[in-house]
Design brief:
With about 190 residues, this protein is mostly helical. Helices cover about 75% and strands about 5% of the residues. It has 6 helices and 2 strands, in the order αββααααα. Strands 1-2 form a two-stranded antiparallel ribbon. Helix 3 runs antiparallel to helix 4, helix 4 runs antiparallel to helix 5 and helix 5 crosses helix 6.
């Protein structure tokens, strides 16, 4: 079982890396990527420790210089306005995996609710960090309305479309993985 979990965690790191490369550039040093999709998927197919660990490992790999983030990699990434989203990804993966485990989530409605909670957590960290870095580190006086306009006009609607699709996909994915686990333990 542990080998299977480690494989899934490694797969999530690989998918996060691929998701970072599928991107649409946005204002203020930001990108819309598919990373968030795989953060949410990690939270539903992995136990909390592995979900949190896979996303944290991805972030650490990027910080040590492996160019796996949307804008590259390296320790300097900490001062990029979008780094807060990566922090939010780690917290989101752990919190959602814990919620899924605790509340035995199995239905489309529950997955949608779980994924919506993930949006809230991720954007709280992402937007707060972006505002702080732009103002205090980069000394850019960007109106808050501009930052929120980008998030609410494009990012969040795109993420809601994505979570509708993902929530529908999570039900059969989780069911298939549970079936595989049952077959593997029966042999």
């Amino acid at each position: 079982m542990k080998t299977r979990l480690l494989f899934r965690a490694a797969l999530m790191i690989a998918l996060l890396t691929v998701g970072a490369r599928i991107q649409i550039p946005l204002p203020y040093f930001d990108y819309y990527t598919l990373q968030f999709t795989f953060v949410l998927l990690a939270a539903v197919i992995l136990p909390p420790r592995y979900a949190w660990g896979s996303v944290a490992t991805y972030v650490l790999m990027g910080l040590i210089g492996i160019p796996i983030f949307a804008g590259g990699g390296g320790l300097g990434y900490i001062v990029r306005p979008s780094f807060g989203y990566l922090i939010g990804f780690i917290i989101t993966a752990g919190v959602l995996a814990e919620l899924k485990q605790r509340y035995k989530i199995h239905t489309l409605k529950c997955y949608f609710t779980l994924n919506t909670i993930g949006i809230v957590i991720t954007y709280i960290f992402g937007l707060s960090y972006k505002i702080a870095i732009l103002a205090w580190y980069l000394n850019q006086s960007v109106p808050l309305s501009d930052i929120f306009w980008v998030a609410f006009a494009f990012d969040i609607p795109a993420d809601f479309i994505m979570i509708v699709i993902l929530s529908a996909a999570e039900v059969p994915i989780v069911n298939a993985l549970q079936s595989l686990n049952q077959r593997a333990t029966a042999h």
